């Protein structure tokens, strides 16, 4: 992904930094909106937002944790320990 900044710089990050965008179709990725006065981009079809500051600070999007599976693993360990 590339972004042209107001000062003329172009920054880029790998598409893989956004699991939602990397799994999206080309049509979903092409449907985007600029946020505010250019602070970021929103892809409504996949509910993804990427800020310019996130790109500058090199902060990739993280997948959500499936809390149910994590909780089940903890309960299994508790039963074994008991």
Can you walk me through this structure?
Helices cover 37% and strands 21% of the residues. It has helices at residues 19-23, 26-30, 52-56, 67-81; strands spanning 2-4, 10-12, 33-35, 40-43, 48-51. It has four helices and five strands; from the N terminus they run ββααβββαα. With 82 residues, it is α+β, with helices and mostly antiparallel strands. It has a single domain (2-81), classed as Uncharacterised protein PF10387, DUF2442 (NE0471 N-terminal domain-like, 2-Layer Sandwich), CATH 3.30.2020.40. Strand 4 (40-43) and strand 5 form a beta hairpin.
How would the blueprint of this fold be written?
Elements: E1 2-4, E2 10-12, H1 19-23, H2 26-30, E3 33-35, E4 40-43, E5 48-51, H3 52-56, H4 67-81
Antiparallel strand pairs: 1-2, 3-4, 4-5
Structure summary, number of beta strands: 5
- What is the averaged pLDDT score? 86
- Can you tell me the CATH superfamily? Uncharacterised protein PF10387, DUF2442
How far do the termini sit from each other?
A: 50 Å
Number of helices: 4
């Amino acid at each position: 992904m590339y972004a042209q900044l107001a000062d003329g710089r172009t920054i880029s990050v790998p598409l893989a930094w956004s699991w939602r965008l990397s799994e999206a179709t080309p049509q979903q990725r092409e449907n985007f909106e600029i946020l505010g006065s250019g602070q970021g981009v929103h892809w409504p079809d996949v509910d993804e937002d990427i800020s310019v500051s996130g790109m500058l600070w090199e902060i990739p999007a993280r997948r959500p944790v499936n809390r149910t599976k994590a909780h089940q693993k903890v309960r299994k360990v508790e039963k074994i320990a008991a």
